[in-house]
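Predict structure. Chain length: 360.
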Amino acid sequence: MKKKIYLSINGIGYGHASRNLFLIKELLKRGYIVYISTYNEGYEYLKKYFKNVHFSKGFNLIFTDEGILSVKLTIAKQFFDSIIKLFLQIISEIRNLIYIKPNYIIVDSRISTAIAARLLKMKFVLILNQFYVEIPRIKKMNKIIRFLKRMVERILYEFIFTMWIYASYLIIPDLEPPYTICSYSIKLKENKYLNKLKFIGNITNINQNTKIIKNNKKSNKIICTIILSGNLQERSIILKYLLKIIKKIENENIYINILTGLDFINKTTIKTATIYGWVKDEKEKYNLINEADILIVTGGHTTLIEAIQYEKPLLIILLKGHTEKINNSKKIKELELGEYIFINEINEINFLNKMIEIYK
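Prediction complete.
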């Protein structure tokens, strides 16, 4: 009888879902029956590849029109709703686990399944790149606000860590220390838990694709490929900024490809740029990345881990307030693997200069 694996994935953005795509394909190839549970963008992503995907309503992050991650808006619009959704997710996960009776449970950064497995006394393995949630500080804070910020961060850390640490293993899809990209977000309370940490590097299927399409540049122009990551609102805000800038760029020696990952966008050419919607063909996607002289990404952990393996000049554009992505980007700069800049600081002149500077 085939063994069953229950894979529960954080559905905010495509990052968690995309890094598990190759894992799911490999498990199926080895004869396992795989059940997938996710929500939001994760569900939209994985249902394109697999039929056996369980859906649940999920929590999301909210950004201002200026592209700043807003804790106030996120809490104001979703606090009570999120508590209800978390409770319903836990109930749904308990029901799924009881009904499916999996031989193995793999959880990627999803608290509801960790709680459900704990309540059912079932063992699970956890994939993650963040223990510590840092509340963004956009404006100057007084002593009371700073105290409340630290207190909330501590409560979140204790709650998340308490659930995560019940996992049999903590799988970090990142480089080993001191080169860990997500190092600022991985904080253990005690050294006794170190034996649970396993750094496994990239789990996506890059190497196979690059062997097929290496050195496939079609032009003498400087080619820049931009890969957007994050939830729907985050991608849309960054794309809006980029389109305004690209329309003003007059340099014909630079060509830009933007991989939005958005279903509702058709392939479109604007001046010296091509905007792509959803690219399902992995070879086409990696071809666009391989032919690039410069890669521009938006700070998502999975995308960064993939990007550095291409050994190309790297620029990260960020939205203010997204502390995890900002911390990832700081680490990239510390390791001298790339530079970063905030999207609201970019105009057509410094964007062009930054690309030329990095290319040289």
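Summary: Residues 71-100 form the longest helix (30 residues).
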